[in-house]
Amino acid sequence: MEIYLVRHTETVCEKGICYGQSDVNIATPFDEIFDRIISELPSEAVIFSSPLKRCVILAKHIQENIKTISYQEDERLKEMNFGDWELKSWNEIPQEELNPWMEDFVNIKVSNGESFVELHERVGNFLSDKISKINQPIVIVAHAGIIRSILCHQSLLPLKEAFNNKVDFGEVIKIDF
């Protein structure tokens, strides 16, 4: 089955801000980038999107420009919950909190947030609940963390190596699942 993983485009956040599940907007203009993304997608697909506006804006644009079999937003496609770190500069997160997480982001839970293992489990639940029942091409509009997790599920890559999967803003990654 063909799955097209689409990362949202750049946000309005300054570089170096941890915005995880914060509902930030995308930077404008984005029309040319959206047109390029559309050109890389199938002409007909089932679309799933994170409910965060930086994904929904793009997903709705895709929905308007390809034949959409169905469209659904799913909470399990939200980016990692960075809890107390949300909307903070990475530089202002206390080192005694940041360093253990940087050494083991897979298992260490962010204060009032989640670990990458928890994110990976919810992505796994989404995949087994939704993807296994579909025979048409699928477009998933989501975040870098979600896409890395899906790629780990698909390739059996250990989670500690998830960041080996580079995922740029506005990138489309086609996989067979």
UniProtKB/TrEMBL annotation:
SUPFAM superfamilies for the chain: Phosphoglycerate mutase-like
Signal peptide region: none
EC annotation from Swiss-Prot or TrEMBL: 3.1.3.73
NCBIfam families membership: ribazole_cobC
PANTHER family: ADENOSYLCOBALAMIN_ALPHA-RIBAZOLE PHOSPHATASE (PTHR48100:SF59), BROAD-SPECIFICITY PHOSPHATASE YOR283W-RELATED (PTHR48100)
Listed name of the protein: Alpha-ribazole phosphatase
Naturally occurring in which organism (per UniProt): Flavobacterium tagetis
Organism lineage string: Bacteria, Pseudomonadati, Bacteroidota, Flavobacteriia, Flavobacteriales
